[in-house]
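Budget justification aside, the reviewers requested a transparent look at the raw inputs and outputs of the sequence design task funded under Objective 1. We therefore reproduce one unedited record. The lines immediately below are the structure tokens for a 383-residue chain.
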């Protein structure tokens, strides 16, 4: 598959087996745990489902690497499996990690509890303050971990600066690009070594599986994959098949999420009951200029505060009809949630408020419905 094709063409064709298997236009599901022995020279090459090398894994790995523009990629049984396996591959006991403040809840807990238990220290820094990065760096610092867009305030770190800082100081740069996807952000082109995703969200895009991705150089991804083979967090072939199917429409879906997201954000920002909106596509967002420079679209995620506080937020959640009160994001169905009750429930309220996350902050994931219907629904609920 020549690389010169554009992203939407690659989404459809990249990585698909040639010649087609038994003539099948779609890569079939290989629901077989083991395979006839070939001439495998290493344990990791033995064909067995846990070793992430079924025909479904191979096709998906090729497609994901082409999409990210990296040499290699590997899928995992969840986004957290990708994150925990990647971090524990890069870091060993005695190492130190610089991490962006305000990480995804599961990652925050992993860094502050599990990694600490393994003898791996960390320092949290702001994503836009190189002086803090330099102050945090120690002789044993091995990696820098950040996110493309933070949850739930949609901050955009100085991603180019972080990648450059890592290159200059010999650190492995890692980015969780779940909220952006390869359609809206090209982390490898910015200089990131490892790109991570919860494929549960936009990459699969249908709210019907959990999966993760690690993409990067062949050397790094091979290391992650060998560790994954021992950890055992491999993706089932049926989930591989569904993810591969979902990926084929990624850029079409992202185009809709980007367009509808901006319309809904603009509607909310202009509404008298709304105190403020956090959406990187709005000029009022503190990181708007950087978002415009780095992103090809602003996505479907946003959060906002209502002038009526918690009472108004509760009423909104109970009144909307097209938004389901559920965590997660990136599917066809629009979702609404209060981060203080879901994604950030585990965080001390003082810490949460210090990060700028109000108790009554409402987060929405704009789905694939018509934006006009979503706006009508919100309009009615806000009245
Ligand atoms: C959901 C999510 C994860 C975790 O992914 P799972 O597939 O639920 O394990 C990690 N990072 C971000 C930004 C997420 O939104």
């Amino acid at each position: 598959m020549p690389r010169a094709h554009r992203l939407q063409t690659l989404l459809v064709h990249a990585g698909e087996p040639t010649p087609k298997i038994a003539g099948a236009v779609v890569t079939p599901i290989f629901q077989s745990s083991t395979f006839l022995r070939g001439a495998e020279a290493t344990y990791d090459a033995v064909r067995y489902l846990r070793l992430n090398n079924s025909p479904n894994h191979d096709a998906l790995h090729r497609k994901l690497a082409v999409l990210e523009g990296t040499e290699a990629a590997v899928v995992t049984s969840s986004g957290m499996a990708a994150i925990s396996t990647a971090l524990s591959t890069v870091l060993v006991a005695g190492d130190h990690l610089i991490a962006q403040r305000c990480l995804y809840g599961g990652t925050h807990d992993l860094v502050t509890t599990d990694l600490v238990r393994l003898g791996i220290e960390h320092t949290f820094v702001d994503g836009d303050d190189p002086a803090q990065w330099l102050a945090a760096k120690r002789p044993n610092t091995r990696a820098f971990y950040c996110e493309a867009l933070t949850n739930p305030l949609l901050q955009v770190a100085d991603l180019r600066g972080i990648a450059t800082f890592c290159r200059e100081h010999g650190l492995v740069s890692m980015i969780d690009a779940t909220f952006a996807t390869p359609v809206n952000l090209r982390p490898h082109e910015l200089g990131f070594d490892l790109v991570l995703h919860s494929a549960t969200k936009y990459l699969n895009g249908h709210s019907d599986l959990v999966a993760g991705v690690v993409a990067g150089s062949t050397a790094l991804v091979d290391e992650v994959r060998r560790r994954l083979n021992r950890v055992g967090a491999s993706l089932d072939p049926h989930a591989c098949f569904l993810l591969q199917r979902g990926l084929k429409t990624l850029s079409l879906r992202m185009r809709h999420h980007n367009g509808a997201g901006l319309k809904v954000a603009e509607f909310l920002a202009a509404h008298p009951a709304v105190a403020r909106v956090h959406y990187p596509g709005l000029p009022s967002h503190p990181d708007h200029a950087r978002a415009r420079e780095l992103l090809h679209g602003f996505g479907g995620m946003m959060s906002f505060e209502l002038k009526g506080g918690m009472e108004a937020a509760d009423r909104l959640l109970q009144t909307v009809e097209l938004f389901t009160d559920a965590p997660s994001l990136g599917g066809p169905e629009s979702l609404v949630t209060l981060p203080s009750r879901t994604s950030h429930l585990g965080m001390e309220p003082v810490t949460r408020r210090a990060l700028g996350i109000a108790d009554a902050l409402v987060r929405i994931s704009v789905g694939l419905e018509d934006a006009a219907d979503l706006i009508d629904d919100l309009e009615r609920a806000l009245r």
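Residues 78-80, 104, 106, 147, 151, 176, 178-179, 198, 200-201, 210, 212 surround pyridoxal-5'-phosphate (CB under 6 Å). The two ends are 53 Å apart (CA to CA). Computational costs for records of this kind are itemized in the attached budget.
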